[in-house]
Design a protein that fits this description.
Layout (H helix, E strand, L loop, with lengths): L9 E5 L4 H12 L3 E6 L3 H13 L4 E5 L5 H15 L4 E3 L15 H29 L3
Parallel strand pairs: 1-2, 1-4, 2-3
């Protein structure tokens, strides 16, 4: 088996409690990365990821973070950096869509999608980048 080079690396994955995000979290952790995933509100799904990892002897951490909130993102990223000592990998996976015809979209729905899919990426990346600059990698 090839060495992925992920052992000992610290990763943050947004939207890691379900679907593709969960698969990313599990793969990174299985390859030896110290993974923390952010989730918005589904505590049961987040707990399921952590419990499944624990059952396999893999450590995965979760943090409830609304990535639309820049201050919440900064605080969550700082907690990961403090706990793990560094941040090597960021996977901006969180995203959402409102199923509706374009003409029927409410302004609030459009804003929520943009705040999550664009603003969230910006908020988390902006919080992570200073850590990567200091460590000169990531």
């Amino acid at each position: 088996m090839l060495d992925s080079g992920l052992a000992g690396r610290t990763a943050i994955v947004t939207g890691g409690s379900r679907g593709i995000g969960r698969a990313i979290v599990e793969l990174l952790a299985a390859e030896g990365a110290d993974v923390t995933f952010f989730y918005r509100d589904n505590v049961a799904a987040a707990d399921s990821v952590v419990a499944a990892a624990d059952a396999r002897g893999i450590r995965i951490a979760s943090d409830k973070v609304d990535i639309r909130d820049a201050q919440a993102c900064a605080a969550a990223v700082d907690r990961v950096a403090e706990r793990c000592g560094r941040i090597d990998i960021l996977v901006n996976n969180a995203g959402m869509i409102r199923d509706n015809q374009l003409a029927a979209f409410a302004d609030e729905d459009v804003q929520m999608v943009l705040d999550t899919n664009v603003g969230g990426v910006f908020n988390v990346t902006r919080a992570v980048v200073p850590h990567m600059i200091v460590q000169r990698s990531g």
